[in-house]
Amino acid sequence: MRRYGKHTDEDDIRTRPGRRNTRPRTNIRPKHEDAAEGMVLTVDRGRLTVLVDDRIVMAMKARELGRKAAVVGDRVALVGDLTGKKDTLARIVRIEGRTSVLRRTADDDDPFERVVVANADQLAIVTALADPEPRPRLIDRCLVAAFDGGLEPLLVMTKSDLAPPAKLLELYGDLDIPYVVTSRDELENGGAADRVREQLGGRVTAFVGHSGVGKTTLVNALVPEERRRSTGHVNAVTGRGRHTTTSALALPLAEVDGWVIDTPGVRSFGLAHVDPSRVIHAFPDLEPGTEGCPRACSHDEPDCALDEWVAQGHADPARLYSLRRLLATRETTEGD
């Protein structure tokens, strides 16, 4: 079938232009030196809420960032409409360097790590003393993630009206971790929230905890003007809580000039990404003793130099036990 007429001129035939007649492509990207700086407050289905100066701006990630994702707590550079008005959208063109990262994997066999929070100074590990029962292995895993990511841990124990904290405190006493004990009555009256708030001043603190431990209730008490969705209940059969927080959210603490980052409740905390050599940095009394360790030492083997270091009186044996217990939790299940 003929596509053209009987007397078609060759000049009328459409041809693809040669390379010399087209605009050459380039890998050079704009530097966006005039981009504004902001802090990511939350991420929801590709849309990011960013604080720019004193304005809340909605933004999306620029295509040039590729697969690199921004998370809550990230410091980012933005261009575009930064007015924060309704139906406006800015563009994140750069993610600044991170001072710390809280990471986890789905399980210990998952090679893909996920950054939960960036640039936090502190990790508040919230655990209930009862209903549901404490899960020391999960607490240990959160501690390892904190030490690995450069965050200082804070242990927050809730529901002390249901069970005393002595047993749990004895388990973590040798780690010298700061802690706060709270009860439901104190939270309602504000006393417990004030004690927790004292630990948060001038810092960015990420809150993490097993579902049902009262984490969101605590955050609501700390930032009452920004109350999150109502808390859930604990299943009487499984002892597990219901997720009431579905996305991480950064909230300002005006009275003490700090930030709280509420994260979704966790039921597992994979540590496949953790290098044991980074965890030792959280034990300054033991770290010098690793100089005599064999290469790639796990710090829990016959040739480990830490045994001799402790035997010589340089550190308390309980500290070495605590280190090895934390490292061992990478290979054990998250039970009690």
Instruction: Note poorly predicted spans.
Output: 229-244
The counted number of beta strands is 13
* Count of discrete alpha- or pi-helical segments spanning 4 or more residues: 8
Alpha carbon gyration radius: 26 Å
How does the helix and strand content classify structurally? alpha/beta
Order of helices and strands: EEEEEEEEHEHEHHEHEEHHH
Overall, the morphology is: globular
Could you give the distance between the termini? 78 Å
Task: Walk me through what this model shows.
By secondary structure, this protein is an alpha/beta fold. Helices cover 19% and strands 23% of the residues. The chain contains 8 helices and 13 strands. The protein has helices spanning 136-149, 166-172, 184-189, 191-198, 215-222, 276-279, 306-311, 317-328, and strands at 36-44, 47-52, 55-61, 75-80, 90-95, 101-104, 114-118, 122-128, 152-158, 179-181, 204-209, 249-253, 258-262. The strands form 3 sheets. Strands 10-9-8-11-13-12 form a 6-stranded mixed β-sheet. Strands 1-2-3-5-4 form a 5-stranded mixed barrel. β8 (122-128), α1 and β9 form a beta-alpha-beta unit. The longest helix is centred in the middle third of the chain and has 14 residues, at 136-149.
Give the helices and strands, then pairings:
Elements (H helix, E strand, L loop, with lengths): L35 E9 L2 E6 L2 E7 L13 E6 L9 E6 L5 E4 L9 E5 L3 E7 L7 H14 L2 E7 L7 H7 L6 E3 L2 H6 L1 H8 L5 E6 L5 H8 L26 E5 L4 E5 L13 H4 L26 H6 L5 H12 L8
Parallel strand pairs: 3-5, 8-9, 8-11, 9-10, 11-13
Antiparallel strand pairs: 1-2, 1-4, 2-3, 4-5, 6-7, 12-13
